[in-house]
Amino acid sequence: MQQVRSFFFGPTPQEQKQKCNALIRKNTRLLDRDIANLKQTEFKTRNLIIQASKRAQRNPSQKTQAIKETKLFARELIKVRKQNNRLHTSKAQLESVKMQVNEAFAVRKIEGSIRTSTGIMKEVNSLVRLPELMGTMRELSQELVKAGIVEEMVGDMLPGDELMEDDYDETEEEVEKVLGEILKDKTPQVAQEEHDLPSAPVAVEEDVEQEESMADMRNRLEALRG
């Protein structure tokens, strides 16, 4: 009977609220999963930095490549942390959307009408462009339109809403700060060793060895991102 009634009259406000909350919970679980994965990636990247630093100190023949690796892994760690901060911000936004949606339905129950919310539109608009949530957030935005909480689809960017960018160059200062945090008193030694490296061309055998090391390092980075 309920399905027949929904077919002719559409879902009730309670059903709309339940569906919106279910989609919000789904998005929250997705964010929690990605945050947990990033935590593991950060742990692995820290270990790679430590391992590369030890190799630079113990094996003179691999010193050049190992020092390059510590900096490359430090840059990767900065990106992981930036991504982690972005996901935590998105989770807070999602909690805000949930509160505003429930408040809108509560007002509808009391006053018999619902008010559109520009605040929800702005936050959903930001979240719908998050790669991790794009599909499910579009579904949520459609439900919010049907419920009358937002006036239109949120595909277009609202004024003052800026897309968060991940592509930026990590400064040398940021890299040294990360290395100092992880390696502590080992950092000055690594930095000094880098300045002491010879600038003369290396032998062909060293070139081959470094190419193989770089390929191995790229594979490890890809495995971390995976």
Automatic annotation (TrEMBL):
InterPro entries: Snf7_fam. Gene3D superfamilies: 6.10.140.1230. Residues 204-214 have a biased composition (Acidic residues). It holds the Pfam family Snf7. Residues 187-214 are annotated as: Disordered. Residues 187-197 have a biased composition (Basic and acidic residues). GO terms for biological process: vacuolar transport. It comes from the Eukaryota. This is Snf7-domain-containing protein.
